[in-house]
Structures are given as C-alpha cells and as structure tokens.
Amino acid sequence: MAARSPLLPAAISACPPAIPAPRSQTLEKGLLAQHNRWRRRMVTHLLEHPGLFPLVGQSTGGVPARVRRLITRETDRQQALTRVLQETYTERDLGNHSDPLDELIYIMISRRTREGAYQDVFRRLQTRFPDWGEMAGAEAREIHAITGTAGMGVQRAADLGQTMRLIGNQFGRYSLDDLQDWTDDRVEGFLTTLPGVGPKTAYCVLMYSLGRAAFPVDTHNLRVLARAGVFHEAGLDLTHLDHKRGQAVLADLIAPELRHSLHVSLVLHGRDVCQPRPRCGGCAVNHLCDFYRARQTQVNRTSSLPT
Ligand code: SF4
Predict the structure, then answer these.
(1) Is residue 82 in a domain?
(2) Which one of 194, 207, 285, 304 is least enclosed by Cβ atoms within 10 Å?
(3) Ligand 1 binding pocket includes 283 (Cβ within 6 Å)
C-alpha cells in the first residue's frame, strides 16, 4: 500500500452533503436490487481487504452492521457528488458511441491523445473505411497515414488492423453486436485479448455501448476521486495509484446506478476544474472534498499562528 498523502487526515468523519441526497430506497425496483447486491459485495470486500481499507477494522471493529452503516454514508456522499456535478455540467457529450465497435475504435485512438485530435482521426477513419471491415484488409501504413497525423505511432495503426481481423474471425462479421448477449466478465475477457485494448477501453464499451454498470477509470476521474476521498472513512488512499491500478481498485467501488453519470462528470470536472493544479475556490464540490478540507485546515492553522 502506498504511503498516505500528508494532505489527507488519517480518518475523517463522514461529511453530510450540503444538499440532501436521494436515498437508495427511491430507486426503481431493478436498480434497487442491483444496488443492494453491490452493498452486500462491498461489506465482504471491505472486510476482506484490510490493506486497501485500513480503517475498517478500527472504525467498525469488523462488525458487518457497522460496515453497512459506513457504506450507507459513503453512498450518500457519492450520490451528493454525482448530483452536484450533474447539475454543474449540463453539456455532457464526450463524443462516445452507442455502437460497440465504433466505441472500441474511438477509445483505442483516444489514448494519450488530445480530444480534438482523436475526434478528427475518428472522423477521417470513418471516411476512409466506411465499412470497418475494410480496415481489416488495410496495411498498417494506410491506417497510420490517418492516425499518425495526431502523433500516434505505427503500432497503434497495426493494433487497429489486427483488432479488426480478430473480430472478423471471432464473429464472422465486423461487428460487436453479439456482445449484447454476453456477461460483463466475458465481454471484458474477450476485449482485453485484443491488441492495444486494456481494461479501461473494455469498461468504456461496457458502459457507453452496452449500458452496463461499469466504471471506466482515466487520469481525470482518478485524480478527482483521489482528492475528494472516495471511501475515505475506510482509509482508502488512491493518491499514488496510476490509472491502471486505479481501474482495478475502483472497478466496483462506485454505486452501480451512479457510475455512468459520475464517470462523465468526473472527466469533465478533471479537465475543467480539478486539473493537476486544482482550482478549488470555484469548485462546485469543494464542500465534499477531503483535499479542500485538509488545505483549508492548514490555511486556518497557519493564519492563527502568532506573528
Ligand atoms: S475542491 Fe479542489 S481538489 Fe477538490 S474536487 Fe474541487 S478542484 Fe478538485
């Protein structure tokens, strides 16, 4: 476990959201059942991973009923974060696609590339290969003639061509529509066998195109969640994780019914406000943020020192 950031206090009591959060009981029946299954998984997960959640034993004595109450407070906090950010970011289109093969290609070319540049590459690929199957027969240099304009290496072009060939072999056509009938685990397992496709890309396809309760983690939403302090009462510290490890840790930690909305909001918030140098003063969720609270405490302490 990485060392705890000195900015984060060892334990912070749950902070009631400034705006009352809707309780999980207001969810419609299917979502409520999904939410309750998640809560049960979380009780076991928190109790079985003391390395990730070092304060669970201290604050709950390992008693499941107390862990359940901790999860209720965490859920309230996640709901408040989701709601305030949803009200803040009303323009929520990140350009994602409802067709799973479109989404796969879109996320493959988005990696470590500027938003405007990969969106332009996607449009040009669609124009050059109106049927994605044509990319399966194309040489890497033909694909790279387009992707290279956004600074992507030849390997990414080769991965796109090879991915298309593997999809053709698997399904007998250039489509991922059959994934609709697969379980989440099977989809993730298959997609991550494709070259250049990692768990985050697979989770994007699951969430954006297949409507599953997946939670893709990128540098933006990991940064915001690490600072805001998800599961802080359990002692979870995300501050030193890279996004791959963050994806593994966070995959199931957000309440399922909040994942899509919160993912989109956090990407927008990480890009606009909670940047590497955060603009906390104008942040709509600073009342829910551990980083902000710790910083304010430091400022107050410093200003109260005798001069
Ligand atoms: S208060 Fe600051 S650190 Fe916290 S979420 Fe907002 S911008 Fe990020």
Answers:
(1) no
(2) 304
(3) yes
Question: What does the alpha-carbon distance between residue 227 and residue 16 come to, in Å, rounded to a whole number?
Answer: 17
Ligand 1 contacts CB of residue 228 (under 6 A): yes
Q: For residue 304, what pLDDT is reported?
A: 74
- Can you say how many angstroms the Cα of residue 162 is from the centroid of all Cα atoms in its chain? 27
CA of 31 to the centre of ligand 1 (A): 29
Q: Does residue 224 have its Cβ closer than 6 Å to ligand 1?
A: yes
Q: Is the CB of 292 under 6 A from ligand 1?
A: yes
What pLDDT is stored for residue 22 in this prediction? 47
Tally of CB atoms within 10 A around 78:
24
Q: Which atom of ligand 1 is nearest to the CA of 286?
A: 1
For ligand 1, mutation pick of 285, 295, 296, 298 (most atoms within 8 Å of CB): 285
C-alpha count within 13 angstroms, C-beta hemisphere, residue 54 = 10
**For residue 286, is pLDDT > 60?**
yes
In one letter, which amino acid is 266? Answer: L
Q: What DSSP string runs through 184-223?
A: HHHHHHHHTTSTT--HHHHHHIIIIIT--------HHHHH
The answer to whether residue 19 sits within a structural domain is no
pTM of the model: 0.88
For 111, the domain range is: 100-209
Confidence of residue 278 (pLDDT cuts 50, 70, 90): very high
User: Which CATH number characterizes residue 148's domain?
Assistant: 1.10.340.30
